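[Discussion] Sanity-checking designs against the backbone

I'm trying to build intuition for which residues belong where. Below is a structure token string of 86 positions. I'd appreciate it if someone posts a full sequence so I can compare it with mine line by line.
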């Protein structure tokens, strides 16, 4: 649990897309995570590739419970890259 800008974020809780966008901005901000701030398109390339492959593997296995999680991971990768672009 972490409070930022008078709002409490709880890890592993469900968040809507607006909250997810806000979390990504926070992660890349000076009060966020040093690892996230250091990332570039190039450093994130392998992460995006791996997460995308995990989506494909889940589809091939018809593992729809895992697919939901893996799609969330890809979404996070896309949002992190979009934040880097901004």
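Best answer:
Here's mine. Compare freely.
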């Amino acid at each position: 649990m972490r409070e930022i800008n008078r709002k409490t974020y709880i890890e592993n809780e469900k968040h809507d897309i607006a909250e997810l966008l806000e979390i990504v901005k926070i992660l890349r901000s000076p009060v966020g995570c040093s690892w996230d701030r250091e990332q570039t398109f190039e450093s994130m390339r392998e992460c995006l590739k791996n997460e995308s492959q995990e989506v494909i593997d889940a589809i091939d296995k018809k593992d729809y419970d895992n697919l939901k999680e893996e799609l969330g991971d890809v979404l996070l990768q896309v949002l992190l890259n979009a934040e880097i672009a901004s």
